[in-house]
């Protein structure tokens, strides 16, 4: 049983089903509301793991191939270019910009083709260990006894709490804005713009669409009325010189704007109890500056299935999975927090170097 039908959960479901597991999923949201936000970057490690599941090509076809990050300084002048590792070979892009709903559809369809059953509108209310099984009680009153429970229910994971795996969710003084806009002709790669107070950027999602993002520094976490989102983002973008400032006029529909706090979580010790484990953001949620949250989640799903196949028992497989994944995920989460701090201190050159180093680290095998 997998709780949470997001990137980590759906990837794990497909990987396990392909290895002979009978997989069911419980998702709190309805089928039309299982994803939020506009876009994301599938970095090289994401594509490498998806390639193992036969899904890299469809993601490349339905997204926008990217291989270069262009950094722009506070005066609107070029500050350097990072050429990302092409982990699928020289003929394919290093990463792909993709709309979140498109990625979710691809992963959901792949899971269903593998025989995975997804139950919507269900949450977990209790978890107990029964010898080699896990007893799971759901919000609709049903009880399942399963050989494996996987909590893939996000940074505020209920499964994590029910297993007694305690960690904090930390806010880092930043709010990230994203908005869907028409793709400017100049946007053929990722662009990152340093500002005198905030940072911004643009990621192509298709030939016609992109998303603009802005990281607002030194603000308290909170919400704004929907009617204020688009005008406020326009104001924040207008102060940037050059190209990203020009995108402010493209942010015109409030429904296209989302605003989220920069939060992280990291389980420093165990990720598992008995035959239950948490993966993805439930175990290790990085700040978005590294664009690697999806990569870590997708890798988790694949590596979990690999280690369970290699070991004689579920418990041994989970122990091996955590041992293999924890150092990599810990490094990325901590680096993302450091990058967030460097941004707020206006130490952009140091942040760029650390981002580049982390991409090189992520290029190593999962």
UniProtKB/TrEMBL annotation:
This is Oxidoreductase YetM. InterPro entries: FAD-bd, FAD-dep_Monooxygenase_BioMet, FAD/NAD-bd_sf. It comes from Streptomyces klenkii. GO terms for molecular function: FAD binding; monooxygenase activity. Keywords: Monooxygenase, Oxidoreductase. Residues 1-335 form the FAD-binding domain. It holds the Pfam family FAD_binding_3. The keyword Oxidoreductase applies.
